[in-house]
Amino acid sequence: MKATVQSAKYQVIKSALLDEIRNGVFKPGEKFYSESELKERYSVSSATVIRAIHEMVNEGYLIRYQGKGTFVSKAKRNETIIFSESDNDLKGIQSVKVIDCVLEDDPSIKEKLGLGQEERYYRIARLKFDSNIPYALQISHIPARYFSSKLTVKNSALSSIYEAFKVNNGLDMYTMPYRQTICAPSVAAPEVLEALKLGTHQPVILMKRFTFDEQGLVIEYIETWKRLESFYIEIRTPDKGAG
Domain containing 15 — which CATH number? Predict the structure, then answer.
């Protein structure tokens, strides 16, 4: 419970700071609060402040310069765009296979999920196929506390998990807010290459997605690896008069 409260505290601070940036309290390129100022303002530890600032840097709202401090990014972040991502050029029969479902306690994943020291999470790996050819490996990480019964390979299909979320926790995972990043790493883990039947230097796409509940707590962290030829995105501004 203590870790959950701490996680909620850093997210409250982050949300308040983002509101200040969006409302023009700070102009692009202007110097931002120091860690000591935020510690005093919110009466929290350095770790809580650092975590909030770190996420804002990773999301592009802030930039840190060694020896100079933290500044508001000059990048445009308030322009409305329409972003769509889909599986590209799938022509055969699509199927999904759960290949692994285990309880784990990797500290790096627990930090992403905001879990306490004694809490654990399920790591669920699914392989997606197009005409029996693997094109995507999806690895979900979900806190174990959300499930009243043990998950196994047999009962951890995506539809089954999200239905359990809805029944046990009143959360419709398909409509919850999320944040997603996309990159093309130079090297993929052996597990990924083997699952997707790729050579060492073949390109892949990695999508990292955090899903949040109404309080802003992370309820699922997903890493999806895709073959490059199976990935497609479109980014555009809304049509004039739309909405």
Answer: 1.10.10.10
